[in-house]
Design a protein that fits this description.
Blueprint: E1 8-12, E2 20-24, H1 30-39, H2 42-50, E3 54-57, H3 62-65, H4 68-74, E4 80-81, H5 84-87, E5 106-109, E6 155-162, E7 171-175, H6 176-181, H7 185-191, E8 195-198, H8 207-211, E9 226-229, E10 231-233, E11 240-242, H9 267-279, E12 285-288, E13 295-299, E14 303-307, E15 318-325, H10 342-345
Parallel strand pairs: 2-3
Antiparallel strand pairs: 1-2, 3-13, 4-15, 5-15, 6-13, 6-15, 7-12, 7-14, 8-9, 10-11
The structure holds fe (ii) ion.
The site of fe (ii) ion has 3 residues, from loops.
């Protein structure tokens, strides 16, 4: 049963087998709704978990004028909202994509000086039956945010500040919980206890870099690839979910699966690709075509997502993101952040 609230109506996400749409009652503003949630966040959290960790809030335009509102809302979902100035290291992030006034917000945009370019367009652009491609390997770029870290983050909040016209620049989401539940028993047995090796992009460990014969860069301790269970049991819902990325955010030198033949032609790669094809079947995928002022909250512990192509030479797309941490699960208990150099961590 979806949670009842005086504040909002919750309806199923159209075109998806997971997710919810939260509309505030009586034309309530995003600002007023956030203030009410701060007094009692439980209905919001209940709605999120009842919706498989995915909520669309169409009425959050207020954030565009008052970006701290996004941080306040983020704080309701976990112990820590990442302050990107504090976790910045020259090797893993650029300073100029941090919001100037609100360092918890990362800008994802092709606007200068960031100039972040979209994924390459799927080739061919449509499927054989004329549809928007969503399934791996036709659709690439599937990942869960910052899985190259231990502990990994819980949630991301993502808002469209300046979206592209409809039909491009969408974000695709895939349900790791539903996909795990439908695996055949023999495959569940085969992956039990396995760990994936997740890599910080840009260090010569992607599938493409390895196939091209690029030498992997030497890594400082805080840049090293990190292991995670291939099946993560969600610390709140208790449900198991596939937890993985593909070409760009797994380690194709020593992984992608710990203890299996490494490299892009090894047994680990075959398993990753088999699972990735499974998790990106139509019934587990939702495609979100953005409207200005829409906010999406997604749980990185059980959902994957992928960006889509857009005409970057024609349009400027601006998205803001926050990252929420603090409840990765018992297997990460007491760990120091892997991605912070020791000297900075001691500050
Ligand atoms: Fe992402």
């Amino acid at each position: 049963m979806p949670p009842k609230s005086d504040l909002f109506d919750l309806s199923p996400l159209p075109g998806a087998t997971f997710g919810g749409v939260m509309n505030f009652k009586g034309g309530m503003s995003g600002r007023a709704a956030t203030a009410s949630f701060e007094k009692n966040p439980q209905p919001l959290l209940d709605a999120l978990y009842a919706s498989g960790g995915f909520l669309l809030m169409p009425q959050m335009m207020d954030i565009l004028d008052e970006p701290t509102l996004m941080v306040r809302l983020s704080q309701l979902f976990g112990r820590e909202v990442e302050n990107n100035l504090k976790t910045y290291t020259a090797e893993n992030k650029t300073l100029f994509n941090i919001h100037e006034q609100v360092p918890e917000i990362i800008l994802v945009t092709n606007a200068p000086p960031i100039n972040s370019q979209p994924m390459t367009r799927p080739e061919p652009p449509l499927t054989a039956d004329g549809k928007f491609p969503t399934r791996f390997p036709h659709r690439k770029g599937w990942h869960t945010d910052q899985s190259f870290r231990r502990p990994p983050p819980d949630f991301s909040l993502f808002i469209a500040v300046q979206p592209t016209p409809k039909g491009q620049g969408q974000t695709l989401f895939a349900d790791g919980t539903g996909a795990y539940a439908s695996l055949p028993v023999h495959l569940k047995k085969r992956i039990e206890g396995l760990e994936g090796l997740h890599a910080l992009p840009g260090n010569g460990r992607s599938e493409k870099a390895v196939r091209e014969g690029q030498p992997p860069k030497p890594l400082l301790p805080h840049q090293r690839s990190q292991k995670h269970p291939l099946v993560r049991v969600h610390p709140v819902t208790g449900k198991p979910a596939l937890y993985m990325c593909e070409s760009g955010q797994m380690d194709w030198v020593d992984g992608p699966i710990v203890g299996m033949t490494p490299g892009p032609d090894g047994d680990g790669a075959k398993l990753v690709y088999e699972l990735m094809r499974h998790i990106t079947q139509d019934e587990y995928v939702y495609v979100h075509d953005w409207t200005k002022g829409e906010l999406v909250i997604y749980d990185n512990r059980n959902l994957l997502h992928a960006p889509s192509w857009y005409e970057a030479d024609k349009y400027i797309r601006i998205m803001w993101r926050t990252t929420v941490m603090g409840n990765a699960g018992p297997e990460y208990a007491g760990e120091k952040p892997s991605w912070i150099p020791q000297t900075a961590a001691a500050e």
